[in-house]
C-alpha cells in the first residue's frame, strides 16, 4: 500500500480537482436568487452611432430614467436625449439617413429571474420605469463568450452569448429563452439595459 | 596504476568483447557521477533498434498519408467511407496490434500498430460525430466525450497488455479528458475566466505527473522506463503553471515551488528535474527583475544583479548534480 501511495496521489489529485471545481462552480451559484427583473435588448446601444458623435440608441441616464432615440439621425426624437448629447447638423442628418436607411431597430425584453418568464416591452413602457445597472440586492449581469476549445486550441472561443448574474465571488448562468430573429429562426443576442427597480 | 596501463586494460577488455561499449561507458559515467538514473534507465530498458525507429517513422508517414488522403478527397467521400478510413482503420490497426502482440513481449510491429490506432482514434471519432450529425452545443463537450472514449479504449488496453505505448496514450487521453472536462464544467463562468484558473489546473496536472513518475521509478520493466518522461513533463507543467499564476502572491509562492522541485530532484535522483528546476529559477529571476525592479533601480543595475543571480543558479545546479545525483 505504501509503495502505491504516489500512484494513488497521482490519480486522486486530478479527480479531486475536478470535484472541487464542480463544487466551486455550482454550489455558490445556487444562492443567487434575484427578486428584481432585468431588461435587455437584441441590438447594442451604440448601433448606428459611429461617426455621429457616438449617440446611444438607448440607455439609462444618471437618474435611472430610460431614454430611446428612435430616429438615430436625430431629426426628431421620441424621447428627450440625455444632457450633453447634441443633435446632428442638417448636412450630417442627410448623410446619416442615407447610411442607415432600412436599419433594424432594437427590441426590448424584460426577464424575471424568479419565474423564468420573458416578455417583450415597448420603449414607451420602459420610459415609465426606473432602472439601474446594479440591482438593489447587489447583482450585476454580464455577457460571456463560451469556450469552444482548451487554451484556445482545438477550437476557439465561441460566439454564443452566455449570460451570468454575479454577486461578489458567486455567479449563476441564466438560461434565457431564445428570441425570434427577424430574418427567421432564433438567436440569442443579449445587451443588458438595467435592473427594474420596484 | 599508470594511466596507459588502465587504458590498455580497457582496450583489451573491449577487444575480447567481454564487456560491451555501453557497459564500459556506464561504469565510467557512474564513476564520474554523470549518469541520470531515469534517463539512462529509459535508454537501457527501452532499446530502440534502427528497425524500430524506421518502423515508428513509417507509422507516422502512414498516418500523415491517411490524413492527406482524407483532406484531398474529403468532399468526394461518402459518410460511410469517411468513417471507414478513419475510425475503421483505427479499429483494424487495434485488432491487428492485439493479434500481433499476443504472446510476444516486445514486438515493435504491435507498438507501431497501437501508435497508428491511437493517432487515428480521436480523428475517427471527430469525423463520425460530424458525419452522423451528432451536434453538441459546445465544442469542449464534444472533446470531453471523445477524450473519454479514447481513455476507456486505451485504458482497457493498458490493463490487458501492459504495453508501453498503451500507457503513453492512456496518459495522453486522461490528460486531455482532465483539461476538456474542466473547461467544459467552468464554461464561460466569469469567475474562472482568467489565466489563474488555467495555471492552477496545469500545476495540479504537473504534480500528478510527478507523483506517477515517482511511482514508475520503482517499477521494473518497460513501464519503469517512462518515469523520466513523467518527471520531466511533470516538472515543466508544475513550474510552468506556477510561474504563470503571477501577481505578488503567486510570485512569492513560486520560489518555494522551485525549491521543492530542486530538492525533489536530489531525492528522486532526476537530472532532468534539476535542469528544468534551474531553468525555471532563472526565468523567475528575470521575471522578478523586469516586473518589480527594472523601474525602481533601473535596467542596467537590475541586469547586473540578475546576471550574478543567474550565474549563482547555474553554479548551484551543477554542484547539486555532482554531489547528490548519481
Task: Describe this entry's structure for a reader.
The complex is a heterodimer of chains A (198) and B (326). Chain A is α+β, with helices and mostly antiparallel strands. Chain A is 18% helix and 27% strand. In chain A, the strands form four sheets. In chain A, strands 5-4-1-12-6 form a five-stranded antiparallel β-sheet. In chain A, β8 and β9 form a beta hairpin. Chain B has 326 residues and is mostly helical. Chain B has helices at residues 3-15, 21-32, 37-45, 50-73, 79-101, 108-131, 139-161, 164-186, 195-216, 227-245, 247-268, 271-297, 299-324. Chain B starts with a helix and ends with a helix. The interface between A and B is medium-sized, with 34 and 35 residues.
Major sheet description of chain B: none
Q: What order do the strands of the largest sheet of chain A run in, or round the barrel if closed? A: 5-4-1-12-6
Tell me the quaternary state.
Answer: heterodimer
Q: What's the order of the H and E elements of chain B?
A: HHHHHHHHHHHHH
> Total number of helical segments of chain B?
13
Count of individual helical segments of chain A: 3
**Structural class determined from secondary elements of chain B:** mainly alpha
* Record field, number of beta strands of chain A: 12
Relative helix content of chain B: over 70%
Give the terminus-to-terminus CA distance of chain A: 63 Å
Instruction: Summarize the biggest pleated sheet of chain A.
Output: 5 strands, antiparallel
Termini separation of chain B comes to 25 Å
Mean pLDDT of chain A: 77
Number of strands of chain B: 0
Overall mean pLDDT of chain B stands at: 82
Count interface residues per chain for the largest interface. Answer: A-B, 34 and 35 residues
Give Rg of chain A in angstroms: 22 Å
Amino acid at each position: 500500500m505504501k509503495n502505491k501511495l504516489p500512484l494513488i496521489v497521482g490519480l486522486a489529485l486530478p479527480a479531486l480537482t475536478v470535484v472541487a471545481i464542480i463544487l466551486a462552480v455550482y454550489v455558490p451559484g445556487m444562492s443567487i436568487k434575484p427578486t428584481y427583473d432585468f431588461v435587455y435588448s437584441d441590438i447594442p446601444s451604440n448601433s448606428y452611432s459611429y461617426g455621429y458623435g457616438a449617440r446611444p440608441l438607448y440607455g439609462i441616464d444618471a437618474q435611472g430614467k430610460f431614454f430611446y432615440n428612435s430616429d438615430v439621425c436625430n431629426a426628431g426624437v421620441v424621447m428627450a436625449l440625455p444632457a450633453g448629447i447634441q443633435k446632428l447638423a442638417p448636412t450630417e442628418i442627410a448623410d446619416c439617413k442615407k447610411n442607415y436607411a432600412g436599419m433594424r431597430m432594437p427590441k426590448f425584453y424584460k426577464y424575471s429571474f424568479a419565474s423564468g418568464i420573458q416578455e417583450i416591452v415597448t420603449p414607451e413602457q420602459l420610459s415609465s420605469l426606473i432602472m439601474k445597472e446594479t440591482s438593489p440586492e447587489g447583482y450585476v449581469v454580464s455577457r460571456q463568450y463560451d469556450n469552444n476549445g482548451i487554451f484556445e486550441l482545438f477550437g476557439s472561443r465561441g460566439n454564443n452569448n452566455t449570460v451570468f448574474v454575479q454577486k461578489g465571488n458567486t455567479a449563476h448562468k441564466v438560461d434565457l429563452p431564445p428570441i425570434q430573429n427577424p430574418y427567421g429562426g432564433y438567436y440569442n443576442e443579449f445587451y443588458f439595459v438595467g435592473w427594474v427597480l420596484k | 596504476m599508470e594511466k596507459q596501463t588502465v587504458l590498455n586494460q580497457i582496450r583489451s577488455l573491449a577487444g575480447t568483447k567481454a564487456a560491451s561499449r555501453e557497459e564500459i561507458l556506464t561504469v565510467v559515467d557512474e564513476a564520474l557521477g554523470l549518469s541520470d538514473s531515469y534517463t539512462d534507465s529509459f535508454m537501457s530498458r527501452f532499446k530502440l533498434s534502427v528497425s524500430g525507429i524506421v518502423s515508428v517513422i513509417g507509422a507516422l508517414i502512414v498516418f500523415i498519408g491517411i490524413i492527406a488522403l482524407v483532406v484531398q478527397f474529403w468532399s468526394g467521400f461518402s459518410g460511410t467511407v469517411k468513417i471507414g478510413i478513419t475510425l475503421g482503420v483505427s479499429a483494424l490497426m487495434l485488432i491487428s496490434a492485439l493479434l500481433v502482440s499476443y504472446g510476444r513481449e516486445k514486438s515493435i510491429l504491435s507498438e507501431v500498430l497501437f501508435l497508428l490506432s491511437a493517432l487515428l482514434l480521436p480523428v475517427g471519432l471527430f469525423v463520425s460525430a460530424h458525419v452522423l450529425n451528432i451536434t453538441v452545443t459546445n465544442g469542449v463537450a464534444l472533446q470531453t466525450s471523445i477524450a473519454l472514449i479514447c481513455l476507456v479504449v486505451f485504458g482497457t488496453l493498458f490493463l490487458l497488455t501492459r504495453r508501453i505505448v498503451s500507457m503513453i496514450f492512456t496518459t495522453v487521453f486522461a490528460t486531455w479528458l482532465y483539461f476538456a472536462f474542466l473547461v467544459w464544467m467552468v464554461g464561460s463562468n466569469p469567475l474562472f475566466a482568467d489565466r489563474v484558473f488555467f495555471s492552477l489546473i496545469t500545476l495540479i496536472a504537473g504534480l500528478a505527473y510527478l507523483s506517477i513518475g515517482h511511482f514508475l521509478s520503482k517499477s521494473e520493466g518497460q513501464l519503469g522506463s517512462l518515469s523520466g518522461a513523467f518527471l520531466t513533463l511533470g516538472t515543466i507543467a508544475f513550474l510552468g503553471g506556477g510561474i504563470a499564476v503571477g501577481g505578488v502572491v503567486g510570485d512569492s509562492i513560486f520560489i518555494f515551488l522551485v525549491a521543492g522541485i530542486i530538492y525533489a530532484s536530489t531525492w528522486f535522483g532526476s537530472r532532468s528535474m534539476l535542469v528544468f528546476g534551474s531553468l525555471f529559477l532563472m526565468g523567475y529571476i528575470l521575471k522578478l527583475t523586469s516586473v518589480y525592479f527594472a523601474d525602481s533601480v533601473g535596467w542596467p543595475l537590475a541586469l547586473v544583479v540578475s546576471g550574478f543571480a543567474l550565474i549563482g543558479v547555474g553554479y548551484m545546479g551543477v554542484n547539486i548534480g555532482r554531489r547528490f545525483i548519481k
